[in-house]
Write a structure and sequence with these properties.
single chain; Rossmann fold; 3 domains; 6-stranded mixed β-sheet; 5-stranded parallel β-sheet; 21 helices; 11 strands; globular
Amino acid sequence: MNPDFSDQWDKLKHIASNHDIRDIQGLFAIDTNRNQNLSFEAHDIFIDFSKNWMTADLFSQLITLANEAQLKNKIEALFAGKPINISEKKPAAHTSQRKLKATEKIVQDREKMFFIAENYFSGVYKTAFNKKVKTVVNIGIGGSYLGPKLAVQALSDLQTSNDIKVLFFPSVDDVALVSLLQNCDLTSTLFCVSSKSLGTIETISNKKTILDLLKNITDYNPSSANQSFVVATTNQDKAKELAIPSSHIMPFDHATGGRFSVWSSIGFPVLMAIGREKFLQFLAGAECMDEHFAQTDFQHNIPVLMALLSVWYRNFIDLPAYAVIPYDVRLRNLPAWLQQLMMESNGKMIDQNGRNLDISTSPWVFGDHGQLSQHAFFQTFHQGNDILPIDFIGVIDKNSENQNFLLINMLAQSAALMNGNKSNNIQNLCPGNRPSTTILLKELTPSSLGQLLAMYEHMIFVQSVIWNINCFDQPGVELGKNIAKNIVSHLKDGTLGDINLDKSTKQLLNRVLK
């Protein structure tokens, strides 16, 4: 289905033209129980949609659109392991990857990861310098970096008694390398090369850089057990070409997309930070949200409602941006993770039938820690001519005055955005009527974090179903990567003069290289 040709799509356009739907205070006046009617709860997550340009009846109209897009069948296909990634002719295995009672192969791969981690924890495995591991460095980029980094930082207060520090080396930038070297002793560091295909040029380059540094240190002597490298990948043959023994290669299902892969061995840095038991809780939390998504009717289904609200703002109200503002420093990397998850998944102009879309898909996603954001870009939220929907995310901690202060600030900002003020000074006027959603976690645990990430994953999937696009491929990203590989190949061969590039890029490339 192309949604732009749907009768229901046209009906929703007509509803959007009525500006009464954009009067939040007016909507509260009509429905005195609005805050209750538009609030939902699943496990550790409570969500309040009432400060949005939305009503229960409008949600029902959007659900009709979802039904036209056969959302229920698509959800069933996702969980049944059917080939819903049509461009690569394979399923999307991230929900299977986190099942505690998964397939024999997934459990086998997971147990191998646990075995490797436990051997490094206990000192049975050491680095190639015969030293116990004190630091783990993740060498990966994109989905092999953002998910693990978010989870490690979010659960930083649950670090294991092994006291292993986890760092990340995603960029080939020399400044990043210098910073890394200042924060770890290479001889007691385990490097986890994380790449689904092992074809990502930045990751392979960083692995080579580290290997060259290690080889220049006296006593570097890898053995069958003592290795300074482990690899998380679906490409085991390529891993062996990097001189990594099979015992230190952690495979995962090839149908697991990179940006959906923190639940697999790509999550090895998370495992090393929090240990086996808490990692299993992380998976179990995501599986709880999977069950909610798969089994709950759409009227109470949190990921479905979030996606429908997002489609409403993007396509019917024409709001191009979307902010995600966590009021907890542990979640400060959530916006960057979600930015990749949403924009790389759904930033498409071609539908699954190969037709050009006449509608916009993914909004521009951005955000930062809430208290910092208040003193940065919230001014535009309150008084700018451009309006955008906002997700406020808070974590309840009854034992922390500071955390309560943060949440009070968060709630005050959402109230100010909705209500505005009636200042006599025109310069101070804030018009209000700015939409926002508030998401509260009972506490930040491995389980609740798993629920939160899975919730957003399913939101992205529902968006893609409504837009009739494939959220599991990224051909635009691959285009840029292939051009970079082509340039590097010509550089190595000394045939740069023969490369087929536009004049501007050739000029800039020559300037860089000279």
